[in-house]
Amino acid sequence: MKLKYGVVGTGALGGFYGGKLAKAGHDVHFLLRSDFEHVKEQGLKVDSVDGDFLLQPVACYSSAQDMPVCDVVLVCMKTTGNHLLPELLKPIIHEQSLVILVQNGLGIEERLAQEVPHASVAGGIAFICAHKVGPGHVNHLDLGRLILGLHTSTGNKLLQQCQQDFEQAGVPAQLAENLGYIRWQKLVWNVPFNGLAVVLNTTTDQLMKQKETRELAHEMMHEVIFGAKNCGYDLDPDFADKMIRTTEKMTPYAPSMKLDFDNRRAMEIESIYTSPVQAARQAGFEMKKVAMLESQLRFIASQIEN
C-alpha cells in the first residue's frame, strides 16, 4: 500500500524529510505559509551533504482545507505553534491516520492525543543539522537520522511502513520501543546546546572550544540524564560523553533555538525546558542548572516580546 503523506511545517525539517520522501517518488503534500507562492513557482530546494536536489513541481498548499486527506502527517513545525494543530489536522486526517510529531521536547504527544483522540500519534526524533536559508530553500549540513516511536496503542503498521519508506528514500530511520526514553535522550543534547547558544550568543563549535562552557554543557547533560532516571528512563551516563564527542565532530552549527532568537521568533522553552524540569521535579529531582537556564531564557524571551 502506498501511503499519502502530509507535511505540516515546511521549514528545515519538513523540507528535508518531506523532500527526501517526495524525491524518492512518494506521494507527499506540503502545507506552507509565507513560502507558498515561491515554492509553487520555483519548487523546493535542498542543499545537502548527501547530494543537492530540487523538487519541482511540488504538491503544496497555503491552507489545510485545500489538502487531501493523508494517511501519515509529519508535523515539523515548532512546538510553539502546537495549539493550532487540532484545527490544522482536522481536514487532512481520517480515522486511521497516523500523526508523527517530528519536534523537540517532552510531553507533546500526550497533549496531542488528548486534543485529537481519534488519530494515532507517534513521535519522531531527528538527529540532524539543518536550517532554512531562504524561501523554499533548506541547507542540510550534517547527520539526518530519524527515530520513530509510537505513543498511542494504534498505528503500528503505518509507522513500520513509514520507517521503511524513509529508508528507501535514503534517510536512516529506526523504530524505538520506548518513545519517552528517546525523547529524554534527545534532551541530553538539546537542553545545554540550544539554551547556551542563546544566552551566550554563540554556536556549538565555540561552546566546545572553551573549557568552561564545554564543562557546563557536560554537567547539564548529566543533570538531564539523572532527571530522566528519576522519571523511569534509565539513560546510560556515558551517553553524555558520546554527545560531547559527536558535537566535537559536528559542522559548526547554530541550534534551532538560536536561529529563533536571532530572528526574534518565539523559542521552544516550554517543551525543551519547562516540561522536563517539571517532570523531574514531580519525580523528586531538581535539575537546578537546567532550571536556571530556563529562567534566563524566559527573561530573554520577555525582552523580545516587549
Automatic annotation (TrEMBL):
InterPro entries: 6-PGluconate_DH-like_C_sf, 6PGD_dom2, ApbA, KPA_reductase, KPR-Related, KPR_N, NAD(P)-bd_dom_sf. Residues 6-150 form the Ketopantoate reductase N-terminal domain. Residues 181-299 form the Ketopantoate reductase C-terminal domain. It comes from Sunxiuqinia elliptica. Keywords: NADP, Oxidoreductase, Pantothenate biosynthesis. GO terms for biological process: pantothenate biosynthetic process. Catalyzes the NADPH-dependent reduction of ketopantoate into pantoic acid. This is 2-dehydropantoate 2-reductase. One of its GO terms (cellular component) is cytoplasm. Its EC number is 1.1.1.169. Pathway: Cofactor biosynthesis; (R)-pantothenate biosynthesis; (R)-pantoate from 3-methyl-2-oxobutanoate: step 2/2. It catalyses: (R)-pantoate + NADP(+) = 2-dehydropantoate + NADPH + H(+). Belongs to the ketopantoate reductase family. One of its GO terms (molecular function) is 2-dehydropantoate 2-reductase activity.
